[in-house]
Design a protein that fits this description.
With 407 residues, the chain is of the alpha/beta class. The protein has helices spanning 12-23, 45-60, 69-77, 96-99, 115-122, 138-150, 182-185, 198-209, 215-223, 244-254, 264-275, 277-288, 294-299, 309-325, 327-330, 343-355, 357-365, 371-384, 386-406; strands at 35-38, 63-66, 82-89, 101-104, 109-112, 124-130, 152-153, 156-157, 162-168, 189-192, 331-333, 339-341. The protein has three domains: 12-192, Rossmann fold (3-Layer(aba) Sandwich), CATH 3.40.50; 198-288, no CATH class; 294-406, no CATH class. The chain is built from 19 helices and twelve strands. Helix 14 packs across helix 17 and helix 16 (343-355) packs across helix 17.
């Protein structure tokens, strides 16, 4: 199966950043053009729209809410206080859900306004039309296209500061996806969304779920990066496959402590249920191996030398992230200004280095998505641990010799 290649693609974080800039530019007239997000299933299109709404609401000092009929009356009573996301998966609706309900009068027909449309006529917000490219019914297509072009549901016009965002898949990514009429496409701003990076996915999990997810999933993905996304060869299938969305669901289902919750067979079913057989069985086997906690190895660092190699890799990936997140607590200065490292961490890192110098590099590389933070950790380790300093001197000399040989 071939996929359309785009010259310009953005990750969900980059799309969100672009739309925030567009929304808050004073020199750009409102309303902004309607936007179509195109990307593979599970790459984070819906989530980026939700995050966009939350961040806009925070910046303009309003309360972010996701529309339901239960809160509509309250929003209409105090429309200036709210920023509303109206999320509609269009293939689940009838045309009247977007145009209004027809009411026959004596000599004419009028459409009774929809409550969600009245909300967007009076409040700031986003209308999100998901799965636009998957509509099969011509009458539903027509009403959705009119909604996008006219910025109105029936006779109810939306406020100028309401964003209309649609999302969909390419025909080669979904068996029911279809191309859109050229005149409609020409009235949209189309943004091609590529999946988040592994680090963007990790930072999203940390930001929104704290410690209530399985970090060993991150360690697995960092170890086997090619398994992060594996799209099926066919657009129709009964077996799941790895995407950022399915990794998120599995990590949340496992939680921070899954070992006492699921049997070995249940763990296999969870992993294959979210990721498919090939990757899911690998993940289940990976998760069944006991990885000591950081506290456990700080107390008995020599235990590290007795671990299987893949468990060592898993540990140093998680430990690298821990060192970066707790940098100011682990690295300290004495009264003379000399840099020091807490003794228990110094002992553990020396054990890791003595076991394998390569693991030091894995630990630093896995500590952060930001190059500046990785360099900070590497430089600090050089200052406080002579062995690290000698390793980097040796690496520098090797690099210089390789460059000389290349010349």
């Amino acid at each position: 199966m071939s996929f359309t290649k785009f010259t310009a693609e953005l990750t969900p974080n980059q799309v969100k950043s672009l739309l925030l800039k567009m929304y808050f530019r004073d020199d750009v007239p409102k309303p902004l053009p309607s936007i179509l997000l195109l990307g593979m299933p599970g790459c984070g299109k819906s989530e980026l729209v939700r995050q966009l709404g939350q961040e806009i609401a925070e910046k303009i000092g309003k309360t972010y809410v996701e529309y339901s009929d239960d809160i509509a009356d309250e929003v209409l009573r105090s429309p200036k206080n709210y920023f509303v996301l109206v999320d509609r998966r269009v293939i689940e609706h009838e045309p009247s859900d977007f145009s209004g309900i027809p009411r026959v009068r004596e000599d004419y027909v009028e459409f009774k306004p929809l409550k969600w449309a009245k909300v967007l006529a009076r409040t700031s917000g986003i209308l999100f039309l998901d799965e636009l490219t998957n509509i099969q019914r011509d009458d539903l297509k027509s009403v959705c296209y009119k909604l996008i072009l006219d910025r109105a549901a029936g006779d109810v016009k939306f406020r100028n500061d309401v964003l209309i965002i649609a999302a969909g898949n390419l025909p080669e990514q979904s068996s029911i996806a279809t191309a859109l009429p050229a005149p409609l496409v020409n009235r949209l701003m189309i943004i091609n969304v590529k999946p988040p990076t592994i680090w963007e996915w990790y930072e999203y999990m940390e930001k929104y779920y704290g410690h209530n997810w399985c970090r060993k999933i991150f360690a697995y993905i960092k170890t086997y990066e090619s398994d992060f996304i594996r799209l099926p060869q066919e657009t129709e299938t009964l077996e799941n496959y790895p995407t950022p969305r399915s990794w998120t669901r599995l990590a949340l289902m496992l939680g921070s402590n899954y070992t006492d919750k699921y049997s070995s067979e249940e763990l296999k079913m969870l992993c294959t249920g979210f990721l498919g057989s090939e990757v899911g069985l690998k993940v289940a086997k990976f998760l069944e191996k006991h990885v000591p906690s950081i506290d456990e190895l700080l107390q008995e660092p020599e235990k590290f030398t007795r671990l299987d190699l893949d468990v060592k890799y898993t540990f140093v990936i998680l430990y690298g992230v821990y060192l970066n997140e707790n940098f100011d607590k682990i690295f300290i200065t004495d009264r003379s200004g000399k840099y020091l490292m807490k003794s228990e961490h110094e002992k553990l890192i020396n054990v890791i280095i003595n076991d394998s110098e390569e693991l030091l590099l894995v630990m630093i590389e896995s500590s952060s998505s930001k190059r500046s933070e990785r360099l900070r950790l590497a430089m600090m380790l050089c200052k406080v641990l002579p062995k690290v300093h000698s390793i980097f001197k040796k690496l520098k000399k090797l690099k210089e010799e390789l460059e000389y040989l290349e010349k």
